[in-house]
Amino acid sequence: MVFILGFNFPESRLVKSALTSFYGIGPRHTQRLMSKLYIHETARVGSLADKQVLDLTAELSNMTIENDLRRKLQDNIRRLRDMGAYRGRRHAMHMPVRGQRTRTQTATAGKLNRVERYG
To answer: Which residue of 15, 22, 48, 54 is surrounded by the most CB atoms within 10 Å?
Structure first.
């Protein structure tokens, strides 16, 4: 097991999939991080040297990921609601926010706006 930024990863797991398991890091950020640290895209977590793991952890700690990013998203939505902006009111009513139609097919938007994205 390799410990990266508070998470244990099995040694057989690909570095690419281990990085994308963090909230806020997608395939693009993963590719950039791996190329910056000279990690091959088919490398396994167990094959990383200790220095690479430390460099990877240092890079990830400089990024806004996981709980910090979730908190930032909640704060942005809370700010919109407190201002009384149109988008904030739509979030509060669990309605589509970005101009989608509301005559039919609002179930998906209702589900997404009920996610713990608001205070």
So the answer is: 15
pTM assigned to the model: 0.79
Q: What whole-number distance in Å separates Cα of residue 54 and Cα of residue 5?
A: 10
Neighbours of 77 (CB within 10 A): 19
User: pLDDT tens digits, residue range 83-110?
Assistant: 999 999 988 888 888 888 888 877 777 7
Element (H, E) at 4: strand 2-4
Tokens, residue 115? 């996610």
Backbone angles phi, psi at 84, to 5 degrees: 80, 20
Closest CA relative to residue 58, chosen from 41, 37, 40: 37
71 vs 119: CA distance, rounded Å: 10
